[in-house]
Write a structure and sequence with these properties.
heterodimer; A: 479 residues; alpha/beta; Alkaline Phosphatase, subunit A; eight-stranded mixed sheet; two-stranded antiparallel sheet; 14 strands; B: two-stranded antiparallel sheet; two-stranded antiparallel ribbon; 8 strands; flat
Chain lengths: 479, 809
């Protein structure tokens, strides 16, 4: 959050307004109607055109917290079953630094049934029976790689592009570049459902060196998603309205002494926006108007899927209302707090897969039914995958050398697969097809009509971009 | 600049990228000329010539040219001006000269009441009381301003306010960061050291030396050891299995922090490659790192001087120890047969190059092994359930045995052990409520563990920690070192002496950056904008100074005045520039739209702490007590850290109502009330406070229960102090919040509001919702019509939400 930069100050200043004026005005696209304001306001959250025609307008970023074993979900490896119980042949371990205690265990297969689905013939294990039916909506990346062996570090890299805190999250970059389509809601929303939440905390959805208006706003489960959204206990709506009317009167009286001060004017308006948000934010997450069938589709009301399903249905509603980036962190399921199956992967993944399978399948179907899938990019992502060899006998260790993630919707290449892992799913098969987190970011931005090399913010004299000094667009992932 | 350590493969060189003007704002394009896009930052070979090398030979006027900041500080002549009477201090002459050159006149003097509110907020971070305002306004003596400023600077509140700004720079927190985000119970001592340093007006050069090398300079001084907290409180990941990488990242954090804070240089660029715009090589970066090669964190240095906090901690701790003794002994007894194996198991979980050091017998340790083992040991106790230490490892070990057992009987046996361990641990947890909630008897410091030999430092290929290139020795970067000083390194029996050499160089009058950087930071505190706007970047990519002579005058005078921060503040407070009114002036706005020349005093939104602390003060609830362990105000239950509740709030309201800088800083979860008003991030150096204006801020001030409670108290206070007359109450309310009386319009608006609001509230009562909020702190005798009182609460609450309250003018 180093605010020491000239760029935003100057770009705002050169248009005649201070940062804060613009920042506040940011929440009022279209409200800068008077000519005086129009001349001065630079609205950091007003919708901005993409750099080139975009396929996607919005993103739902599904972070599988704790790192699932995609070997047991998507990446079918007959050799894993064949070689189960044996030592990992040395050839598979070449070039990787294994670390944790016990070193490399024996090759492990889980007790899954595998089948191919859809026209694309994509493989799914029986842990994802519902999602399997959406096979043809999905563009698989089976050659994902990343850095790191601990969750928080790799999650930070997944979300911000660096292994130390301080950079903006991807959602903040997108919001910075494209603005918001709804002034009455935050542009970048974070949803999580219990468990450990987002490891490492708010740095994962922070704005880093970008202005704070671009940071993610966490929404809680329950009726009142944002902190301080509810009126004080003994204040009625009429009372608050009366208070705000007086506030406006006094602020405007005071502003006559500073007629050119757009920042003060912006702050006056922020109270009207806040007042509206008291209604719009709960409405956005209020599922009572959704049909029973829709709720059932998402698994709402069923114990295992209720929380995650609720968040995904909320995600759809937020996207519908113009929210730009919804960042969903998977949570606790059946007493299992995340996907981190160092032991008893059967129990862990049964619970976690159950929690997300039906809701994600529902999300894809529902977005499609609403005509939103083609403009909404849904990303299944995780900080890393898990090893082909076992750990503690019943689990799997962390694997940053080869795992699966996927895109769906938003102009991604539905029904395709890019890249592959080796015969046991430990490392990617072809180094030239490696897809690092930076490449995922670059490709996602491309779909949003943004060149990751030209999405730039000057910080401390350096042109920063979302992909740091890395990143390539994976063209095969784009339809 | 920054780059993921250990990234495999080097990305291909990108073509030069033109800055995109995608936001549709043409002004952005003006950066393109001078900038090197990040895309070019891919690993440059270590021997490449720095980009700016060629540009240096030209000479530029003071403050211009790419290397202005590295020229020795000059003693500029005070410029001649026409409006001589306006000049109170040399500062005014420098400012006025540029105004006159533009044909601008300075603004009139601000009203005295406006001035005292402004100065009190700047010096203390608090609004003044009506009595303070009245005393100043009615003080007609010629030295009224001097008396006021001296009073402000002499108050301990001054140190609290200054400390907060310094803690921003020191990326201060009470926790370690990352997933586990453990409490650092000793951190508050560093915070208190900073407060004390500012209050005592510790010379800034000494302040630097103590923070960078206190352990070497005065190893027996507790204060000096605590001062090294500046270095020690880097964010750290206790869960890391790669301690070799940790050493690199730790050193990196210390060097990058000091480069930003003291020198305003983006030294971090040198981590991966030669600096793209400044003549600063990758080698020189690692030479800076070499000063820290032997720097270890030690969190277990016993406190020498025990105070109230330590005594209380010991007493509470003794109670817990006594109560839990039997239970702890039982666990220790159970665990001891497994201790050795558990520790071995634990060490095996680290990366191979870490394991080499962990398994080496102590007598064979070299300086590097020493560091790795210190990090390992120091961390064992670094947990919220710290006492367990090595015993705690047994739990993990048994779980591992159980989970990896394939034999059924073995599995059953280990399950039994697991259950026993759990049972015995739970028996101890029963006594957790007796544990001291805060405080400690230890201090944390950076030390060299009694060894003068330092491990080697190497240039890292592309900043990757285990890709070692040439070994380097400590040296100062040539660019920042016009006097061509050489490090004077004198190892002592217990330390390498390296950091002392570095500290002496930074804290030297010959260093061209140090005094300019701090003078500029202090200027920025008063005027919201530095003479160099990029307060932490004096490099080529940063801004040029708007008033280079003034900056050099301030820097030079600062050193001459004994590096006194207070004297520098005093001079600024007493200048005519600072006394100006902030009233709107069209002529000035036209001639100088950004107000760089300061023809008008720049009004500013209060910082997060100023808002909270001033509201508390206005409500009469602020509890003023300097220092001590951080406090835990209530937080929404939804906020968690590492899956646990963020913290259990203090029961005593006195603790909840302390000044904001005493609120516990949990790195992973910023305190919402401060965060929403652009509070400092504790992740990295926070150089400037942003000002953003958002609906979430409005929601906070309107709806937050605490803020509303403060308004109830404010209303109660005003009614008590108003003597039963509504107009007096109204006047009092305005005096408290704005340091002025209401004008006619405001008086009428407020009274009309009270009348109408009574009706609104009565309507609420008639709908059967009986409860209404009334002012807090009133006794029965003062009870008036409760509906009118409830309306008055809302009036107070609304007045506390205005722009006038939230800004200083």
């Amino acid at each position: 959050m180093d605010a020491n930069n000239t760029s935003r100050r100057d770009f705002l200043v050169n248009t005649g307004a201070g940062l804060s004026a613009a920042a506040l005005a940011g929440f009022v696209p279209g409200l800068t109607s008077s000519s005086a304001e129009a001349a001065t306001f630079v609205d950091p959250l007003a919708p901005k055109p993409p750099q080139f025609p975009a396929k996607a307008k919005a993103v739902i970023w599904l972070h599988m917290n704790g790192a699932p074993s995609t070997l047991d979900l998507y990446d079918y490896k007959p050799d894993l079953i064949k070689l189960a119980g044996q030592e990992v042949p040395a050839s598979f371990l070449k070039g990787i630094k294994t670390s944790t205690q016990g070193g490399v265990g024996k090759i492990k297969a889980t007790n899954r049934t595998w089948k191919q689905y859809g026209q694309s013939g994509a493989w799914f294990s029986d842990w994802l029976p519902n999602l399997a039916k959406r096979a043809d909506d999905i563009a698989f990346i089976k050659s994902s790689v990343t850095v790191g062996a601990t969750h928080n570090i790799s999650i930070l890299k997944l979300n911000t592009g660096d292994v130390v805190p301080g950079r903006p999250a991807l959602g903040a970059w997108v919001t910075y570049a494209l603005g918001s389509n709804n002034a009455d809601l935050p542009a970048y929303v974070v949803l999580s459902s219990g468990g450990r939440g987002l490891e490492g905390g708010s740095v994962n959805y922070g704005s880093g060196f970008l202005p704070a208006v671009y940071q993610g706003t966490p929404f809680r489960l329950g009726d009142s998603p944002i902190l301080n959204l509810d009126r004080p206990e003994l204040t009625t709506a009429a009372q608050q309205r009366d208070n705000l009317d007086l506030l406006k009167k006094l602020n405007e009286h005071h502003a006559t002494r500073y007629p050119d001060d757009t920042e003060l004017q912006a702050r006056i308006r922020s109270y009207e926006l806040a007042y509206r948000m008291e209604t719009t934010a709960p409405e956005a997450v209020d599922l009572s108007k959704e049909s029973d069938a829709t709720k059932e589709l998402y698994g709402i009301g069923e114990k295992e899927t209720n929380d995650y399903g609720t968040n995904l249905l909320r995600a759809r509603r937020l996207i519908e209302r113009g929210v730009r980036f919804v960042h969903v962190v998977s949570g606790e399921a059946n007493g299992v707090r995340d996907w981190d199956a160092h032991n008893d992967i059967e129990k862990n993944h049964s619970a976690q897969a159950k929690a997300v399978d039906k809701p994600i399948a529902a999300l894809l179907a529902d977005l499609k039914a609403h005509g939103l899938l083609e403009s909404t990019l849904v990303v299944w992502t995780s900080e890393f995958g898990r090893t082909s060899y076992g750990q503690s006998g019943t689990g799997r260790d962390h694997n940053p050398w080869g795992y699966t993630q996927w895109f769906a919707g938003g102009g991604s290449a539905a029904g395709t697969t890019y890249g592959a892992t080796d015969a046991i799913g430990l490392q990617i098969a072809d180094k030239n097809q490696a897809v690092d987190t930076y490449d995922v970011h670059a490709t996602l931005l491309q779909l949003l009509g943004l060149d990751h090399l030209k999405t730039i913010f000057i910080n401390k004299g350096r042109s920063e971009r979302p992909t740091v000094v890395f990143g390539k667009v994976i063209k095969e992932l784009i339809a | 600049m920054k780059k993921a350590a250990g990234v495999q493969g080097i990305p291909s060189m990108k073509k030069k990228i033109v800055v995109a003007v995608f936001m549709g704002i043409t002004a952005l394009a003006s950066f393109a000329a001078d900038e090197k896009p990040a895309g070019e930052a891919a690993a440059a070979p270590a021997d490449a010539k720095p980009a700016a090398a060629a540009a240096d030979t030209k000479t530029f006027p003071l403050g211009q040219g790419p290397t202005w900041a590295y020229q020795p500080v000059k003693v500029p002549a005070t410029p001649a001006v026409q409006q001589k009477k306006w000049v109170r201090t040399p500062i005014d002459a420098f400012i006025l000269a540029q105004l006159e050159a533009k044909g601008l006149k300075p603004s009139r003097e601000a009203d005295k009441a406006v001035f005292i509110r402004r100065a009190t907020l700047d010096a203390w971070g608090l609004i003044p009381t009506p009595e303070e305002v009245k005393a100043f306004v009615s003080d007609k003596s010629p030295n009224a301003y001097e008396k006021l400023v001296d009073r402000l600077l002499a108050s301990p509140r001054y140190g609290e306010r200054q400390a907060r700004r310094w803690l921003d720079l020191a990326r201060y927190a009470d926790s370690a960061g990352f997933t586990n985000d453990e409490t650092r119970a000793n951190a508050y001592r560093y915070r208190d050291y900073v407060i004390k340093a500012f209050n005592e007006d510790k010379p800034y050069d000494q302040f630097i030396r103590e923070q960078l090398a206190g352990d070497e300079l005065a190893p027996n001084s507790q204060e000096s050891l605590v001062a090294t907290g500046f270095l020690r409180y880097y964010p750290d990941d206790s869960n890391s299995r790669d301690l070799v990488q940790r050493k690199f990242l730790t050193t990196t954090n210390m060097v990058d922090t000091l480069g930003t804070v003291f020198l305003a240089q983006s030294v971090e660029c040198g981590r991966c490659h030669n600096h793209k715009s400044d003549k600063f090589s990758q080698k020189e970066y690692y030479q800076l790192q070499a000063f820290f090669a032997n720097s270890n964190a030690d969190d277990a240095i016993p406190v020498k001087i025990k105070g109230e906090v330590e005594t209380q901690f010991e007493q509470e701790s003794a109670k817990w120890q006594e109560a839990s003794k039997k239970a702890r002994d039982a666990l220790t007894k159970f665990a001891s047969p497994y201790l050795e194996a558990a520790e071995k198991y634990n060490k095996e979980r680290f990366f191979e190059d870490t394991r080499v050091s962990l398994f080496k017998p102590k007598e064979q340790w070299d300086a590097h092994d020493r560091w790795i083992n210190q990090r390992y040991e120091n961390n064992l106790g670094d947990d919220d359930t710290g006492w367990l230490g090595k015993v705690g490892l047994v739990g993990g070990y048994i779980t591992y045995l159980y989970e990896s057992a394939e034999d059924k009987d073995k599995k059953a046996e280990y399950k039994g052990l697991q259950d026993q361990f759990r049972k015995l641990s739970n028996a101890i947890k029963k006594f957790d409520n007796l544990k001291p909630a805060r405080g400690s008897t230890a201090i944390s410091a950076i030390t060299e563990l009694g060894h003068p030999d330092a491990p080697a430092t190497h240039v890292r290929f592309s900043g990757i920690h285990d890709k070692l290139l040439d070994e380097v020795q400590p040296d100062f970067p040539a660019l920042y070192n016009p006097s061509k000083a050489k490090p004077q390194i004198f190892p002592t029996a217990t330390s390498s002496g390296r950091r002392t050499a570095l500290a002496n160089w930074i804290a030297s009058p010959d260093n061209p950056l140090t005094s300019r950087v701090i003078a500029n930071r202090i200027w920025e505190q008063h005027f919201g904008r530095g003479i160099v706007a990029t307060v932490s970047d004096f490099g080529k990519a940063g801004d040029r100074p708007t008033h280079p002579e003034l900056l050099d005058y301030l820097a030079d005078n600062f050193v001459k005045e004994g590096w006194s921060v207070k004297k520098l503040h005093r001079q600024i407070f007493l200048s005519s520039v600072y006394r100006q009114s902030s009233d709107n002036r069209e002529d000035a706005a036209k001639a100088d739209s950004q107000n760089k020349l300061l023809a008008v005093f720049p009004r500013q939104r209060l910082e997060a702490e100023q808002i909270r602390d001033s509201l508390l003060l206005a409500s009469g609830l602020l509890v003023e007590k300097v220092g001590g362990p951080s406090v835990l105000p209530p937080v929404p239950a939804v906020l968690t850290a590492g899956g646990r509740a963020l913290w259990k709030a203090d029961e005593d309201a006195k603790d909840q109502n302390r000044r904001s800088l005493y609120i516990f800083t949990r790195r992973s979860v910023p305190y919402p009330l401060l965060e929403v008003f652009d509070g400092a991030s504790s992740q990295i150096v926070h150089s400037r406070r942003d000002v953003t204006t958002t609906p979430l801020q409005a929601l906070t001030l309107v709806n937050n229960d605490l803020v509303y409670k403060w308004s109830q108290n404010l209303a109660g206070r005003v009614i008590k102090e108003g003597g039963g007359k509504e107009t007096a109450e109204l006047d009092r309310l305005f005096q408290i919040l704005y340091a002025r009386s209401p004008d006619k319009f405001e008086k009428e608006a407020a009274l009309a509001f009270l009348g109408n609001h009574e009706k609104v509230i009565k309507q609420q009562l008639s709908t059967g919702k009986l409860a209404i909020s009334i002012p807090a702190g009133l006794t029965d005798t003062q009870a008036a019509d409760p509906v009118r009182l409830a309306a008055f609460v809302d009036l107070a609450h609304t007045l506390a939400n205005t722009n006038e309250f939230t800004y200083r003018y």
